[in-house]
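thread: overnight batch results

M.L. [08:02]
morning all. the overnight job finished for the chain we discussed friday. pasting input first so we're all looking at the same thing
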Amino acid sequence: MKQYSFSLANEDATVAFGNKLAKVVKPPLTIFLEGDLGAGKTTFSRGLIQALGHPGAVKSPTYTLVEPYEINELKVFHFDLYRLMDPEELEFMGIRDYFSDDSLCIVEWPEHGQGLLPQADIHIEIQYVDSGREVVMEAGTPIGEALLSQLQ
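M.L. [08:03]
and the structure it wrote out:
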């Protein structure tokens, strides 16, 4: 599958990038976010979720594992698996129920849930580059490929 790269100068650009993606997303969709601590995964998620219509704060679900949002008729689930000790914990929380035909699932630190998460439609990696960020996006499914082609 094709890769797409974007440079982001600062936090505002990261939020704007989430806004841009919000214009083309539709369920069902699974997005994996990878990058070092502080790279901008939650900042990107905030831009995406607020652009979809959530009027309030978007906090990192580091301790709760998942933050649900009902936006119009869209179910958005923002996962942060950084503190997950054992992927089996996801089975206990009913992880499979979140990935439905009417949901958008954003998963930070997906490698911590390996083997229990579905394939990502879009895989996004955010890396530090000098004082900014480099974003590399890759589609994992035909749905993801169609969506990413709309961003160009």
